[in-house]
């Protein structure tokens, strides 16, 4: 129980930290990438605005007044613009390529750059990104300019940032995992200690009460022999028997939780069938129908005494909560690598909040009952303890007017194969 609580605490702490780290690094990465890309687009826009084909071609003659409209780049352009590498393709209105500038970069030739420019021209988008190149297209009057700026450096920087983030994040999560385990142990330690003391108290109290209960019972029998039948002695004996039953269940619970049972290969099919036989008479007396569907030769590693007790508790619980004329079903089948025991009875659906408490000590659905039926709300708690000892799972399902208790026990590996 406490191991599961520790795992949940560790998982919760790590989940929160992972979300915080991923969110922080994600925001930093996106903000950096967006800002750098925005700056590159701004530089590309400045380049396109300042571009004049007559400056690039000696044979091109500027139109009247155009020379005065072109700013002097040496005075107006920022240093980043001078240090950046641009590629451009100037295309006339009739589709003729007027000028290709690859900036003497070996990775891009005139043909490749021209093909990219025509693809962009065909799409008609004024700006965007093609592969690793940021582009901008603008009508320059008589020709269209498609300019590019290489975004590879930003992408590589982003990739490097992500790589280091993942490495550092992995190392951090490992350290945080051990920190979370330490915190979980510190958080659960007082609860675990209190729980262990409670279990020890139940065990000690049960053992201490056995002797006086036995003495009272012996004295009552002696008095009855001397005095004969007496109402007051009968009441004492009745309450003493109730107390004895409660003590025995408490000791069973303490023994199940504190003592590691001896495990052996158990024919679970035969065991369940054997526990059904005594309940046929009980079911008949109460007007119930007991039906079984048992898959043969299902072997598990467990303690036969505790598994018999588990099966008996579930059958007894189904019989006590079934009305006359209803049906009790017992199914044992194989699902993947587990043996699944299902004990069901006809009954109203149990609310979810009550289902979650069914395996608590002394919890009963009928709060008005006070133990006159020799049941004290410990049976299902004992069943849960047995399931935990065998590393099994036990759960309650309510569907189609039936209440089902499911127990899943791992099959022997040699049998699974």
From TrEMBL:
Any one Gene Ontology molecular-function term assigned to this protein's record: phosphorelay sensor kinase activity
A Pfam family per the record: HisKA
CDD domains: HATPase, HisKA
Record SUPFAM superfamilies: ATPase domain of HSP90 chaperone/DNA topoisomerase II/histidine kinase, Homodimeric domain of signal transducing histidine kinase
Superkingdom field: Bacteria
Bilayer topology: Multi-pass membrane protein
Entry's localization field: Cell membrane
Keyword annotations: ATP-binding, Cell membrane, Kinase, Membrane, Nucleotide-binding, Phosphoprotein, Transferase, Transmembrane, Transmembrane helix, Two-component regulatory system
This enzyme's EC code(s): 2.7.13.3
Catalytic activity: ATP + protein L-histidine = ADP + protein N-phospho-L-histidine
InterPro entries reported in the protein's UniProt record: HATPase_C_sf, HATPase_dom, His_kinase_dom, HisK_dim/P_dom, HisK_dim/P_sf, HssS/ArlS-like
Predominant localisation class: membrane
Transmembrane segments: 161-184
Recorded GO CC terms: plasma membrane
Domain Histidine kinase positions: 204-413
PANTHER family to which the protein is assigned, alphabetical: SENSOR HISTIDINE KINASE CPXA
Protein name, per record: histidine kinase
Source organism of the structure: Candidatus Blautia merdavium
């Amino acid at each position: 129980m406490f191991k599961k609580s520790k795992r949940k605490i560790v998982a919760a702490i790590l989940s929160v930290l992972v979300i915080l780290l991923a969110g922080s690094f994600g925001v930093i990465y996106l903000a950096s990438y967006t800002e750098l890309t925005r700056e590159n687009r701004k530089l590309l826009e400045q380049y396109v605005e300042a571009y004049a084909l007559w400056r690039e071609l000696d044979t091109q003659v500027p139109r009247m007044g155009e020379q005065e409209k072109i700013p002097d780049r040496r005075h107006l352009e920022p240093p980043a613009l001078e240090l950046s590498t641009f590629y451009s393709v100037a295309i006339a209105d009739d589709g003729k390529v007027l000028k290709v500038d690859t900036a003497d970069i070996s990775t891009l030739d005139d043909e490749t750059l021209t093909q990219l420019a025509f693809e962009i021209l065909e799409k008609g988008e004024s700006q965007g990104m093609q592969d690793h190149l940021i582009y901008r297209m603008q009508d320059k009057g008589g020709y269209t300019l498609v300019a590019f700026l290489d975004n590879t450096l930003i992408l590589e920087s982003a990739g490097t940032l992500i790589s280091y983030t993942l490495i550092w994040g992995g190392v951090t999560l490992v350290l945080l995992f051990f920190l979370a385990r330490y915190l979980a142990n510190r958080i659960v330690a007082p609860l675990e200690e209190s729980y262990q003391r409670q279990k020890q108290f139940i065990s000690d109290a049960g053992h201490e009460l056995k002797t006086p209960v036995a003495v009272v019972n012996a004295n009552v029998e002696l008095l009855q022999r001397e005095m004969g039948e007496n109402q007051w002695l009968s009441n004492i004996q009745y309450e003493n028997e109730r107390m004895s039953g409660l003590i025995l269940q408490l000791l069973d619970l303490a023994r199940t939780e504190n003592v590691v049972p001896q495990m052996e290969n158990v024919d679970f099919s035969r065991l369940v069938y054997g526990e059904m036989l005594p309940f046929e008479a009980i079911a008949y007396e109460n007007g119930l129908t007991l039906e079984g569907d048992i898959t043969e030769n299902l072997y598990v590693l467990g303690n036969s005494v505790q598994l018999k007790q588990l099966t008996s508790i579930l059958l007894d619980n189904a019989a006590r909560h079934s009305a006359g004329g209803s049906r009790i079903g017992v199914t044992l089948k194989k699902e993947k690598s587990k043996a699944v025991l299902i004990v069901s009875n006809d009954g109203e659906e149990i609310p979810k909040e009550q289902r979650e408490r069914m395996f608590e000590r002394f919890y009963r659905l009928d709060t008005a009952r006070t133990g006159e039926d020799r049941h004290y709300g410990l049976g299902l708690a004992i069943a849960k303890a047995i399931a935990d000892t065998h590393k099994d799972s036990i759960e309650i399902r309510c569907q189609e007017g039936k209440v089902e208790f499911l127990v899943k026990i791992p099959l022997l590996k040699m049998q699974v194969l």
